[in-house]
Write a structure and sequence with these properties.
The chain is of the alpha/beta class. The chain has helices at residues 9-16, 27-30, 37-51, 72-80, 92-97, 106-116, 133-136, 141-148, 164-173, 205-217, 238-254, 262-273, 277-302, and strands at residues 5-7, 21-24, 55-62, 65-68, 85-87, 102-104, 120-122, 152-155, 178-181, 200-202, 224-227. Strands 1, 2, 3, 4, 5, 6, 7, 8, 9, 10 and 11 form an eleven-stranded mixed beta sheet that branches. The structure holds pseudouridine-5'-monophosphate (PSU) and manganese (II) ion.
């Protein structure tokens, strides 16, 4: 095991005994949701994964180590401290070498999960090609990571703060399979549909597990993206959410928000503008992804 990785006993036992493990990111806790909902979500999502018969491994950078598996005390720190670095691929080495506190994005969580030998990773939404790409060239490092690192990410699509058709084009160019779980449309995070088609649909977790194994046997590098729509009863109305998103983007441009600050700024503004409605939907879709992701991990392990 890489010398920067520290596993909890629960995660170590699961990996040693070839039990299903599901990674979770920490940027969603530190930079994606307000306190105390963030820590409630972080604890509950771990329990949901355990209820499905898999072991959760939330990942963060603490004390100069990549912690794979966190205690409730660690989760509380990540949910409350203000001095937490947002760690993507670019930031991983510097945050470790300076022993700073860091929350991992989808990209960095994939890297760390892969170092620990974890193949499945559940989150809410991934980063992608931002709207206004022509001007700002803002493309999340999550997409490059999906192209490189062999981890299967289960999410609810991407928020329409992003340019969804361009995000899919980018993934196509990089050869990343995008699998709609029981859907042939890319879910837009808060809504089940987006009018953007996905090239692959699978209707059972077993089918997805079999696909992941096949891709491994072919020695194709890179990850997979499973997009799982938010449950019907929790989805928001598209016109309403689109108005909040448009306003948040306008404000980010007016205020010259750039680089790694763009996504957290937009997420926080959408929570404020929606008076918490978007937050509730966000939490529910993470729980739903946890169920599906844990089942895929379990099916993968059961058949191999
Ligand atoms: N989208 C969300 N919630 C999040 C993120 C994105 O709906 O919490 C976080 C994830 O950690 C993702 C990161 O990997 O933002 C992308 O940031 P950027 O666009 O700066 O790469
Ligand atoms: Mn960016």
């Amino acid at each position: 095991m890489n010398k920067f990785i520290t596993l909890t006993q629960e995660v170590k036992d699961a990996l040693d005994n070839n039990k299903p493990v599901v990674a979770l990111e920490s940027t969603i806790i530190s930079h994606g949701m307000p306190y105390p909902k963030n820590v409630e979500m972080a604890n509950r999502v771990e329990d949901i994964i355990r209820e499905q018969g898999a072991v959760p491994a939330t990942i963060a950078i603490m004390d100069g180590q990549i912690k794979v598996g966190l205690t409730p005390e660690d989760l509380e720190i990540l949910a409350t401290r203000k001095d937490i670095a947002k760690v993507s691929r670019r930031d991983l080495a510097s945050v470790l070498s300076s022993k700073a506190l860091g929350a991992t994005t989808v990209a960095a969580t994939m890297i760390c999960a892969n170092l620990a030998g974890i193949k499945f990773f559940v989150t809410g939404g991934i980063g992608g090609v931002h709207r206004g790409y022509e001007e700002f060239m803002d493309v999340s490092a999550d997409l490059e990571e999906l192209a490189m690192t062999p981890v299967t990410v289960i999410c609810a699509g991407a928020k329409s703060i992003l340019d969804l058709p361009r995000t899919l084009e980018y993934l196509e160019t990089k050869g990343v399979p995008v699998i709609g779980f029981k859907t042939n449309e890319l879910p837009a995070f808060f809504t089940r549909t987006s009018d953007v088609g996905v090239p692959l649909q699978m209707d059972t977790t077993k089918e997805i597990a079999e696909f992941v194994k096949t891709k491994e046997l072919l020695e194709l590098s890179g990850g997979n993206l499973v997009v799982n729509p938010i449950p019907e009863e929790h989805q928001l109305e598209r016109e309403v959410i689109d108005a909040w998103i448009a306003q948040a983007i306008n404000e980010s441009v007016e205020q010259d928000v750039l680089g790694k600050d763009v996504t957290p700024f937009l997420l926080a503004r959408i929570v404020e503008l929606s008076e918490g409605k978007s937050l509730e939907a966000n939490i529910q879709l993470v729980y739903n992804n946890a169920k599906v992701g844990a089942r895929i991990a379990k099916d993968y392990h059961d058949s191999h």
